[in-house]
Design goal:
The protein contains eight helices and three strands, in the order αααααβββααα. The chain has 208 residues and is mostly helical. It has two domains: 20-82, Helix Hairpins (Orthogonal Bundle); 93-199, Iron/manganese superoxide dismutase, C-terminal domain (minor pseudopilin epsh fold). Helix 5 (106-119) packs antiparallel against helix 7 (173-183). Its EC number is 1.15.1.1.
């Protein structure tokens, strides 16, 4: 069964970029709902014992859209919480070098990431990921996920569903993305994911 992981920081820790009110609503209501619905389907389908990553794969195999959406959204939200930190610092080491190689500079990456998320139509997610050809920025619709991608390893993830920012920014998704990138993006996680991809080590998994 899927569990709702606790936040890796206090609800108010990301203020003023993300308010305590938003974190309570987003984690305690939205993420919790995805977990509850997914667990109901897991019981109904007899899939107890599978990890969240395995549930996403099984849902795709069965073409079970409801299970996929709720398992994938559970995974995405947990990775999103870990993609943020109250102790911001910029990227370092090999990841910083890869950013320069792929985008020319961190500022260019920022521009591309913000544009990708701000211009994404309707609900979805903005990703920084690593592939065989280097770093890429992309977005996925609705519950689209890189949880089991063979081609791309997610490094950072920002939620661009309205519930992620509307309390704090109303319709101004672009400002939310700018502040998110500048103040709470967790580059330490991104560095760990990048190193794991290069070494063939274990990348981030949904908390058991």
């Amino acid at each position: 069964m899927i569990r709702l992981p606790e936040l890796p920081y206090a609800y108010e820790a990301l203020q003023p970029t993300v308010s305590s009110e938003t974190m309570h609503i987003h984690h305690d209501k939205h993420h919790a709902k995805y977990v509850d619905v997914a667990n109901g389907l897991v019981s109904e389908l007899g899939l107890e014992g599978l990890s969240v990553e395995e549930l996403v794969t099984e849902a795709e195999r069965r073409e079970h859209r409801k299970l996929f959406n709720n398992a994938a959204q559970s995974w995405n939200h947990a990775f999103f919480w870990d993609s943020m930190t109250p102790n911001y610092r910029g990227p370092q080491g090999e990841l910083a070098d890869a950013i320069t190689q792929a985008f020319g500079s961190l500022e260019n990456l920022r521009t591309k990431f913000v544009e990708e998320g701000a211009n994404h139509f309707a609900s979805g997610w903005a990703w920084l990921a690593a592939g065989d050809q280097g770093l890429v920025v992309l977005s996925t619709h609705d519950g689209g996920t890189l949880a089991n991608s063979a081609e791309l390893t997610p490094l950072l993830l920002c939620d661009v569903w309205e519930h992620a920012y509307y309390v704090d920014y109303r319709q101004d998704r672009k400002t939310f993305l700018e502040k998110w990138f500048d103040t709470v993006a967790n580059w330490e996680l991104a560095e760990q994911q990048f190193a794991a991809r290069k070494s063939g080590g274990q990348t981030w998994r949904y908390p058991a």
